[in-house]
Amino acid sequence: MESTFFAGVSVEETELSTGARIGLPVRYYEWSAMMAHFPAPAAAIRELLPSDRLKPAELVPGTGIVSLAAMEYRRMADVEPYNEFGIMVPVLYEPARNIPGLPLLVPDRFGRFGLYVHHLPVTTEEARVFGVEIWGYPKFLAEISFEETDRVRRCRLRADGKSIATLEVRKSATKAGAMDLFSYTVKDGQLLHTRIQAQGELSTARFRGGASCDLGDHPIAEELRALGMRRTAVERLYAPQVQSMLHPAAARLPL
Fold first, then answer.
1. Which 3 state secondary structure label does DSSP give 43?
2. Per-residue pLDDT for 106 more than 60?
3. CATH at residue 53
4. Phi, psi dihedral angles at 31 (to 5 degrees)
């Protein structure tokens, strides 16, 4: 599977300020993911966005989504293993119409749909540097640990001696599948729209609960709490085995 997914990919090296070199797209050979989508008032979510050109994708009128994702990158090209936790908002860039529900249900039909990355803590300095310098990902160093039982997988996120969040996702039967995600970040006064191409063993469930988040006492936890984010998710992803490629930005858009 690995050779097929990465076969024929043209890799171009770029040098970082540290002198390290990394190939683009970044190739992630083996990792796991868990993600959950939590409703929150769209008006509050809008305050997190860096540009009025970005609009929160609404679940129903007046209700947007905060997406939390935890990744454990076990093996990749050019970079040592690290963990990552994403705090993101599903958005549309300058939508002609913002129809509640549709971009979340069928994102492939919306070319400028993506996840605006608000915070992206990681566990290594190497991972922080390449994400910030190439894409402007808002990375900072944190403690990100995983644990699991027969029924659930759990991730604990801490920084500065305080708890930010504990994300718990119910395990479920998976099947082979592919998915493309797109991120929005801010770099050099522009919005970067970047493709993350992935495949693996995946399971998604909509409108069934099965995922929850407990917020801690860190300022980021207080920020999320102030949004009015619900504790129980409306959709979850469980993916114990994934491969992916993080591509150079596909588009640079005005803020």
1. helix
2. yes
3. 2.40.400.10
4. -160, 170
CA distance 27 to 246: 7
**pLDDT value of residue 102:** 80
Distance CA 184, CA 238 (A): 23
Q: Is the dihedral of CA 133, 110, 28, 118 positive or negative?
A: positive
Neighbours of 243 (CB within 10 A): 21
The encoded tokens of residue 24 equal 């683009």
Instruction: Provide CB contacts within 8 A for 202, sequence distance 6+.
Output: 174, 175, 176, 177, 179, 237, 238, 239, 242
**Burial profile 192-231: b = 16 or more Cβ within 10 angstroms, e = fewer:** bbbbbbbbbebbebeeeebbbbebbebebbebbeebebee
Question: What domain range includes position 242?
Answer: 2-254
Domain tally for the chain? Answer: 1
Reference 114, options 183, 194, 35, 36; nearest CA is 183
Residue 1: per-residue pLDDT:
46
CA distance 136 to 238: 27
